[in-house]
From TrEMBL:
GO biological process, one term: endoplasmic reticulum unfolded protein response
Membrane spanning stretches: 53-74
Organism for this UniProt entry: Deinandra increscens subsp. villosa
Record's protein name: Stress-associated endoplasmic reticulum protein
Alphabetical keyword list: Endoplasmic reticulum, Membrane, Transmembrane, Transmembrane helix
Any one GO CC term of the record: endoplasmic reticulum membrane
InterPro entries: ER_stress-assoc (IPR010580)
Main location: endoplasmic reticulum
Domain of life of the native organism: Eukaryota
Subcellular localization(s) per the UniProt record: Endoplasmic reticulum membrane
UniProt topology in membrane: Single-pass membrane protein
Similarity comment: Belongs to the RAMP4 family.
Length: 84
């Protein structure tokens, strides 16, 4: 049983789905990269000098940790020692 949707057999061969086009582009990029292996520019590689946390967040974290420990020491010293 054949369904005629208004496309001739010649046109249906030229009809390519979006997923097929994307797959073809991906294969093409892969083939180009295979040919360039070993000559990768420096800009495409990840920088190892970057920190995962910004300096402001790191400073705030250190401030909270040191500040809370100093506050605990002062509170313990003024109350006369550790209370159980």
């Amino acid at each position: 049983m054949s369904f005629n949707i208004g496309i001739s057999p010649l046109e249906s061969r030229n009809l390519v789905t979006a997923s097929k086009r994307l797959a073809d582009r991906k294969v093409e990029r892969f083939e180009k990269n295979i040919k360039k292996r070993g000559s990768v520019p420096e800009t495409s590689t990840k920088k190892k000098d970057s920190y995962p946390v910004g300096p402001i967040v790191l400073g705030f974290f250190i401030f909270v940790v040191i500040g809370s420990s100093l506050f605990q020491i002062i509170r313990t010293a003024t109350s006369g020692g550790m209370l159980a």
